[in-house]
Amino acid sequence: MTRVASPTRHVRQQDAATVLKKSQKRKLGAAMSKLKQAQAVQSSAKVQRDALDDPSANVMLLFEELRQKATPLERKQHLIDQVLAQLEPKLGLYARRHDISRVVEIALKHGSSEQRSRIWNALEPSLQRLPETRYGRHVVQALFQYATGEQRRALIAALRETLVRLAMTQDGADWVDHVYQTIANGRERTSMLMHMLLERDRGLHQLLVGSRDQEVRSGDNALDQLLGFVEEPFHQRLVACCRRQVEQILDKPRALSNALVHDLIWTMLSSSRVPFSEKQELGQELATRALYLYHTNNGSLALMQMVQLGDAKLRKECAKSFREVLSEVWTNKYGHRVILTLLAWTDDTVMLSKTLVRPMIPYFDALFAAAQNSGTPALIYAHVALLFLLAGETTRYFHPVFYRMVWNPYRSDQEVHRPKKDPQTRREEMLAVIAPALFQLVHTHGLSLLCDYRNSPRMGALCIEVCKHWQQHGETERIREWFQHILREAPWHASDAHTQRQRHEFLHQVLVLSKLFPEQIFPPLKAHASQLAELVNTNERAARLHGALQSS
Fold it and tell me: How far is CA 338 from CA 177, 259, 278, 405, 521, in A?
């Protein structure tokens, strides 16, 4: 029988260490299991205590009766007393919840002045924190709606104290934007802007906010006025403070979409005391984020100034940033001004055609078709850029203020980078991209364009400029064919005020066309001379057009 050799001493030590480790793991596992069990028991007990302390179940039963329209006002106020009796001690905490926030809103709506005062007193310590939550901001909005003058000032003051922190959060940014655009008056908006400008420098904030905010005029540039309040050595420090504030927001899209932030950026770019190099650097940082700025007045003005001050690289980045929202920018009340500025100031027409013009062709059909609908059609703003491609920078169609903003800003030649290529050449190169589609749409929807009276410049001007383009290129027969197509459905008879205004606008545009293209307009119009004669006594434009037709 062969004898098996016993393990060596080293092997026996390894086995003993392994056994010890396994024993320690078992003991540690048992201890952790007991700890988890104890924590679970404590958590269960806490949940039970919270369930006993949480009055939401009883409150929601009262809310179901409170929300009914058939419930009398006296009964509603009695129910509100019962609700407040249960919620009042911790109302600032409960108001952040979805269910309780609805209860507080309806209590403010139907409560008496005494009950609203009780709600205000319970929520006042939490005014700075409530707007940071998704549902708490709805409660604060209801407080604004039913607040007294003193309470309203307290709400604005509480908002100012946490303005920057709120603007950096998703829900808080929505609330700041709502207050700034719809609730705050001019003085309060200026005060909020000052807090935003000076937030990053405590010394300047303590020096200027509170002592100087009453001296700042709401109509003037706030940064220029603040720079006038401090000595020359502090100017660079103040500008750097504002710059740091903008840099903190660059990576936060929701905050960057805020109207208050747009005013901050416009204040820096329009300041006469901020160095030109500082404005250029700021523009380079914001160019790729232009899609967050176009939808407000000062945001679009800031973009227009960036385009005028920037170089070719900045203009290219700005145009490309609109790729995902291009149709919204073209049809926006303020965004179309940015499109027009890019078309007017950029030499690279190939880039503009690829990024701004050609991608819009699929949208034009729907825009022109919707022009005859009631309301404010999107083509009202989109057709301005098309009018520029056809007519150029003319004062005939563009308001003097609008003209100055786009083509003649108050800047020296050292500051702006004016395009080098001939303006007409640039326009013709971009127009060639969309000319076939545009001309076909004008031919199809010409009548609705000529009858539209809701905007300035009139959409009928688009038809006039297209006819001029045809005449310049020797295609006068297209004008005659187009006008014959228009006259088949002309609004000779009007049944209400709306159609009467449409007819008046149509006759006005035809009168303009007859002066520019008499040989193409009068021959088709003679077939409708009798219908025109019926309007001579009631419409001054019809009388003038009928007289011109007879003398032709």
Answer: 22, 17, 22, 10, 36
Residue 3: the pLDDT is 46
Helices (H), 287-408: 297-309, 312-321, 326-330, 335-345, 349-352, 361-369, 379-391, 400-407
| DSSP, residue by residue, 477-518 | HHHHHHHHHHHTT------SHHHHHHHHHHHHHHHHHHHH-H
With b for 16 or more beta-carbon neighbours within 10 A and e for fewer, the 320-355 pattern comes to: bbbeebbbebbbbebbbbbbbbbbbbbbbbebbbeb
Query: What is the value of pTM for the model shown?
Result: 0.82
Cα 288 from Cα 8, distance rounded (Å): 72
Q: Stretch 202-212: mean pLDDT, rounded?
A: 75
CB-based contacts of 526-529 (< 8 A; 24+ apart in sequence) = 527/487, 528/487, 528/490, 528/492
Q: What percent of the chain has pLDDT over 90?
A: 51
Residue 386: per-residue pLDDT: 94
Would you state the pLDDT for residue 411? 58
Which 3-state string (H, E, C) describes 379-412?
Answer: HHHHHHHHHHHHHCCCCCCCCHHHHHHHHCCCCC
pLDDT at 36: 67
- Give the pLDDT score at 45: 41
What is the per-residue pLDDT for 160?
Answer: 85
Burial degree of 29 (CB within 10 A; 0-12, 13-18, 19+):
exposed
Upstream peptide bond of 457 is cis (omega within 30 degrees of 0): yes
**Phi-psi label, residue 175: left if phi above 0, alpha if psi -120 to 50, beta otherwise:** alpha
Grouping H, G, I as helix, E, B as strand and the rest as coil, residue 296 is: coil
- The 10s digit of each residue's pLDDT in 24-64 is 667 666 666 766 666 665 554 444 434 435 788 888 989 99
d(CA 389, CA 426): 9
**Other C-beta atoms within 10 Å of 190: how many?**
21
Mean pLDDT of the chain: 86
Give the C-alpha separation, 238 to 205, whole Å.
10
Q: What is the C-alpha to C-alpha distance for residues 417 and 406, in angstroms, rounded to an integer?
A: 13
Judge residue 360's burial from the number of C-beta atoms within 10 Å of its C-beta, 0-12 exposed, 13-18 middle, 19 or more buried: buried
Residues near 203 by beta carbon (within 8 Å), at least 6 away in sequence:
none
Cα–Cα distance for residue pair 24/263, rounded to 1 Å: 65
Is the separation of the CB atoms in 427 and 389 below 8 Å? yes
Residue-wise pLDDT for 123-181, tens only, equals 999 888 888 888 988 999 999 999 998 999 899 888 888 888 888 887 788 889 989 99
